Description:
By secondary structure, this protein is an all-alpha fold. The protein has helices spanning 2-24, 28-80, 91-110. It has one domain (2-110). Helix 1 (2-24) runs antiparallel to helix 2 (28-80) and helix 2 crosses helix 3 (91-110).
Amino acid sequence: MCLLALVTVVVTVIYGLLRRAAYEGSYYGAAAIAVVGALVMLIALAQQAIAARDAATWREMAEWQIRAARTKLAARGVATGIDVGPESAIYYEYLVEALIEDMQHTGDDLGDDDR
Length: 115
């Protein structure tokens, strides 16, 4: 709704400047600046939408990685018989350790051919 209001205001201003330029034979510079400003605003809105989508993608990937680490912790706890629930003292240490292991193995899977 706010975007529609913004577009309406910008189009109205540009239309008004063009009408005034046609009647008075001046204000063409102001109309050109308004058109350039509208284009800049459209580009900025597009960049903002792209950035929001990228941030959401990164957030989803981080949440997926944390869920995978928690699954590993649960499996490790069952295998060792240690309580690794969120209320245990060692839970976050194990969680960070599992995340680091995942990141290291992901780097190995990418295959550094330089080594």
